[in-house]
Write a structure and sequence with these properties.
With 251 residues, the protein is α+β, with helices and mostly antiparallel strands. It has three helices and ten strands; from the N terminus they run H-E-H-E-E-E-E-E-E-E-E-E-H.
């Protein structure tokens, strides 16, 4: 009887184990990785609208420039800027005239502080700039400042050669306007590090720098065409990969 009861109990427990539904093993959850932009995220070209507007309004001076840059990890942006500085001025008190139209170049780096790849950027700006130019100086009623002269004589010094170098530091903001079109602003401090000019006199205006002085301030308002792998596409790709891994783990 005892053996019979033990056999019945074992059979009953086995039947219960077979009828109870088996619980599915918990699916492994994939922790989404931090968003990361591609190594080469794109290229962009831009133009500073301020200089072209000033030139169109016949301002006494204008710096008209375009730029090209490379986007690395949406954080580092090597930049090359090329422009033409234009200045035509006549002193109201002295009657001195100054004329220059020459190119200038800047090379440097923009660093994006914004860690989110949402299309908005806050830049730290660094540039090395250089200009080699010729300028004209004149005065129709020149009076010798040392010896003087009874009758004023005209003075013309054309094709005076000079070179200048300076550094620029500043901040910039850029935002997406539509698709690959963006707008950007920058505010810069300029520090001159070198000037070679003839003995007859320093230039009044340095192309790309502005009025000839030891330092100065400047700014840009850029229309930017940014082409490449956008942050939105990279984010969508990461999300798609994460969902596929979750689906495979659940199955």
């Amino acid at each position: 009887m005892l053996l019979l009861l033990m056999c019945l109990a074992a059979t009953s427990l086995r039947a219960q184990e077979q009828t109870e539904p088996q619980q599915a093993a918990p699916a492994e959850t994939e922790v989404p990785k931090p968003e990361k932009a591609p190594l080469i995220s794109g290229v962009a070209v831009s133009a500073d609208l301020v200089g072209f507007i000033m030139k169109a309004m016949n301002a006494k001076f204008a710096n008209m420039e375009v730029a090209a840059r490379l986007n690395i990890l949406d954080k580092y942006f090597p930049v090359a800027e090329l422009g033409i500085g234009d200045c035509h001025r006549e002193g109201a008190e002295t009657g001195n005239t100054f004329d220059v139209t020459s190119p200038y170049m800047r090379f440097g780096l923009d660093y994006n502080f914004n860690k989110k790849h949402n299309g908005n950027r806050l830049f730290a700006i660094f540039r090395y700039a250089f200009s080699s130019f010729k300028y004209d100086f004149g005065n129709e009623t020149f009076t010798d400042p040392i010896y003087g002269n009874d009758t004023p004589i005209p003075l013309r010094l054309d094709g005076q050669k000079a070179t200048a170098q300076w550094l620029e530091f500043g901040l910039g903001v850029e935002t997406k306007l539509w698709s690959f079109v963006r707008l950007g602003w920058s505010f810069r401090y300029k520090a001159r590090v070198g000037l070679n000019a003839p003995d007859e006199g320093d230039p009044y205006f340095v192309p790309g720098f502005g009025r000839n002085d030891g330092s100065g301030w400047g700014g840009t308002f850029n229309l930017v065409f940014d082409v490449g792998k956008s942050a939105k596409k990279a984010k969508a790709k990461n999300k798609s990969n994460t969902e596929q891994v979750k689906t495979v783990s659940t199955k």
